[in-house]
What we know:
By secondary structure, the protein is an alpha+beta fold. It has 25 helices and 27 strands. The strands form six sheets. It has a seven-stranded mixed beta sheet with strand order 14-27-26-25-15-23-24, sandwiched between helices. The chain has a six-stranded antiparallel beta sheet with strand order 6-5-7-13-8-11, with no helix packed on it.
Amino acid sequence: xxxxxxxxxxxxxxxxxxxxxxxxxxxxxxxxxxxxxxxxxxxxxxxxxxxxxxxxxxxxxxxxxxxxxxxxxxxxxxxxxxxxxxxxxxxxxxxxxxxxxxxxxxxxxxxxxxxxxxxxxxxxxxxxxxxxxxxxxxxxxxxxxxxxxxxxxxxxxxxxxxxxxxxxxxxxxxxxxxxxxxxxxxxxxxxxxxxxxxxxxxxxxxxxxxxxxxxxxxxxxxxxxxxxxxxxxxxxxxxxxxxxxxxxxxxxxxxxxxxxxxxxxxxxxxxxxxxxxxxxxxxxxxxxxxxxxxxxxxxxxxxxxxxxxxxxxxxxxxxxxxxxxxxxxxxxxxxxxxxxxxxxxxxxxxxxxxxxxxxxxxxxxxxxxxxxxxxxxxxxxxxxxxxxxxxxxxxxxxxxxxxxxxxxxxxxxxxxxxxxxxxxxxxxxxxxxxxxxxxxxxxxxxxxxxxxxxxxxxxxxxxxxxxxxxxxxxxxxxxxxxxxxxxxxxxxxxxxxxxxxxxxxxxxxxxxxxxxxxxxxxxxxxxxxxxxxxxxxxxxxxxxxxxxxxxxxxxxxxxxxxxxxxxxxxxxxxxxxxxxxxxxxxxxxxxxxxxxxxxxxxxxxxxxxxxxxxxxxxxxxxxxxxxxxxxxxxxxxxxxxxxxxxxxxxxxxxxxxxxxxxxxxxxxxxxxxxxxxxxxxxxxxxxxxxxxxxxxxxxxxxxxxxxxxxx
Length: 711
């Protein structure tokens, strides 16, 4: 079946009805007329179970109320009808994590319940009669039990998960203290015990611990998986050339040797060799370089690259899981998994601290059972006080409180911190590795050759016939000098070569130097047959030199890893004073360089912007991506620059080192607090409620110390 649209004519888009309550969205890259819309909708609506399907021509998407039908069934049906389709995942465009909202709700519930129970406790402490006191205890139980059950769920779930894995974490003693305080209080309330309950202490503990958990979430921004972003760039379908015509097939079903057709604007679904055609390829997916490269018969191409101009026939070499794009995605996924195992300062301290808390609580109970000749209530009172007063709330806040202050400070400086352990790792870096194009440079091409007015007008006249980045740079240069492009006739773009036209009956050219017969990369051929070489460069980011100088002054070696040509890399390295520069590096080579540096004991910070940098970003000890970076690079990075300035890179390292110092100070304060408070609780001088107040005071102390880092 021929995959070309049978009725691609200039028909107006019909008026659409109401919006479909879609549970599935399909992307349709080939549709561009009303006949396409009708064909897609007719095909989808004919499928059993599909309630309604609507196509938006502008977005090139089909919104389907699918009734639970698998997307693959629809994609296959559309392929048989001659329309390429792929599932569109709105989540890849970014979504809001509901964790913060959930924690805020739990904080509100526990805080409201705590205030009400405290009001009831005041009446009891003020001398309420026995019956009234018992009634207030029961009311407090009715308020506290559901409030703690709901609000404390994050701690209970975490503790159960740790215990099921036969290990301890900070949430185990927290949960034990809350459950004991609540359980004993409930028992006392229903048994009519004359002792005051500890509902307020259980709620206060839950409330303040939830605030710490919320600060932890607010101190970072959850990032989507860079590996998922790379996978989203895979072309799911291809046009396989067969005897009866072009057939739409799944890209994963292609085999080595299959011939596929690629149209201008298509992303390549396979690694292969060009059999016919010439084009300009956007290879930024794998090289990170913004300048398209010419490709023609005999050249190799890779999945993820985009053909910009002419159509191609390609023989498949690798498809599906074997393509270079898929290998890059797997590299990033493996690196992300390694990074996620990094343990935070507080977590490492908790491995020692959590078991000590349990031992102290049990020891207090046993000691007071002996001292009071078996008074279980008094022993439980002391044991709960010890558990509450030693609960690692301050330790839990020690890191997120500093993280919140520092991330806010860096945000004001133009840096968004995405990873929960980024500040700790950033404080440890001992070298900074940069990508070139789009990172140290703006990625926009600039004419460096000083052409005369006549040559520049001629070149601009030819450049108006192309959207190639070289042509845009020439047009920009002419406009900046106030030179109007020369009017030419019969302007033609030759894919993979350049632009030609007629001037006075003679052919003139602008494009690849070897096509014109000149040396270099780009040249202009005049009407008399002579030619002039054209050199193009890229603009440095405005503060790149100052930023590199600041890093070197701080004792941090600076390294340049680039996929660009050696000449361009050498010029940039000389300009910035970078001694260690590497050119023509593939994504795998960049990642291997980072791995080898790490194996030597280095802790590199990687700064990059392209898909070719995602593996390096994920493998580096810490990583930063500019705001102009591709989504996959931003998601692989720990921090994202919010402006086009590079100065915040140096600021981030200094702020991270200060933050790590504050984190250690807070952990020290938390330990000191316990050294003072534990003997008091052991001596029976603190009730569970007083213990909760003391614990809260320690939390406020570490928060105030963290705020000292604010500017």
